[in-house]
Amino acid sequence: MDPSVQQGQVAPEPEPEPEEEGIDDPLNRILGCPIIAFGFGGKIMTSFPRTVQRFDSATNAMVTKKYPGDLQLEHIKDVLPVDKEIATYPGPLLMDSAVQMKNKRKDVLQLIEGKIKEYEDDLQDSTFDAHRVLIWRLFKVMFEQEGTLVGGVKVDEAVRSVLLSIPLSVYPVQPAQEPVSPIRSSTSLDVLQDLLRNGDRSGAVRYAMSANLWAHALVISSCVNKELWKEAVNGFVSQELTTGGGDLQANGREALRVLYALFSGQTQNAVNELIPTNLRVPVGESLSMMKPVEEPKVPWKSLGQWRDTLVMILSNRTSGDHTAISSLGDLLMKEGWVEAAHICYLLSPQSSVHSGPDAQLNHLVLIGADSNPHAVFPFYKNVAAFQKTEIYEFAGALRSSGATGGLPFLQAYKLTYIWTLVEWGMFSEAGRYLESVEAIVKSQTKGSPYYNVVFLERLKDITERLAGSSQLTITR
User: Fold this and answer.
1) Distance in angstroms (rounded) separating the CA atoms of residues 295 and 281
2) Confidence (pLDDT) at 333
3) Is 68 exposed, middle or buried (0-12, 13-18, 19+ CB in 10 A)?
4) Under DSSP, is residue 316 helix (H, G, I), strand (E, B) or coil?
5) What pLDDT sits at residue 403?
6) What is the C-alpha to C-alpha distance for residues 82 and 155, in angstroms, rounded to an integer?
7) How far apart are CA 218 and CA 239, in angstroms?
8) How far apart are the C-alpha atoms of 115 and 384, rounded to whole Å?
9) Residue 99 region, left (φ>0) first, then alpha (ψ -120 to 50), else beta?
10) What is the pLDDT of residues 377-411, one digit of tens each?
11) Cα separation of 315 and 401, whole Å?
12) What CA–CA distance (Å, rounded) separates 430 from 342?
């Protein structure tokens, strides 16, 4: 046989085995991942992948592989510390079966004083930090004044002291534009006297305004009618108390302009004096109807006069001034100054509705949280805002010695807070909250739209679930 043929019949060399195609695993799932599951009452089950080395007989080498780990059952408090705001909070505050009203009052007052000191120690050069301190100081006033922030000279004085406890914003006073006034000669007075001689008081007022004879204009208009008196005051304020630095520049006289507008009988529209002229709402249009997307923002220096304005109003009470305070809150809320707006609302309960977000003409729900449904963080999950509102509820109950009271709309948010306690495994606190909610609901014999079927079903559901837990027995 031909050697070449014989050579061709020799078994061919084995072809190399095709390499295993690479796995498209950009997240490295082949390495495994932990599995975490949360259970009722703060239970947490985990399983972490474990690494095992084994001998591979095919390659005569040690290989490392990932395998599922053991299941471990732990409590979330063993993994994460309980939020300090929750762990140190002495809730429930109202109708707590475990603590008497007198002792609860001491606990809450101690919490308030601690919060004030905490914020004062960490107070930065921030406008909003100052607003948060003011809210806690106002809570302390409520405890000192038996649950009220409005009514009486003594209460107003305490509130003013709080508002002035942080230095007011001071801006260099801009020189007012010097009006070109005619010489106040006998000729001007002769014209004025002729108009009055003919009984034309309205004409006399308008002439005096055009001649910058403001004293004459104010005296005469006070005897004509209310509308002309407002017009004269507005003209005086515009001429004498406006800045010479332009419409967008604050001059520190905003509070005085608002007060003079109140003196002239204006209420809601008086707050417009805080806003630069070219940004004001047209006459007859409510601040709440303003469109923030289309309208320019009010300068911070102008908004910074809100406390001075509020102090001016509280120091010079006029009929219907609570409407002006509420309107001031509307302006601040529109500009995103939530805590400042809520302070105004708390000081004007006659005009500012404090209820659920579905209430007509509602102004605030949870103190310190924006209840806008389009907000990035849902306001009903804001624990700090809930606790502040519960403190306000408790302080309000001091007026009736805690016998009755409670904010009906707040009870639903207490259920949300109860679930937060359950998630941390705080069964005892959750059970006391349930008893407190039930006591408040039963004490309000007239009922409330907020105690509807949905609320009662949720209350029943969480009560049954907690009662079924081996760690808690609900007393009925």
Assistant:
1) 10
2) 93
3) exposed
4) coil
5) 52
6) 38
7) 13
8) 11
9) beta
10) 889 999 999 999 999 999 998 887 655 678 999 99
11) 30
12) 29
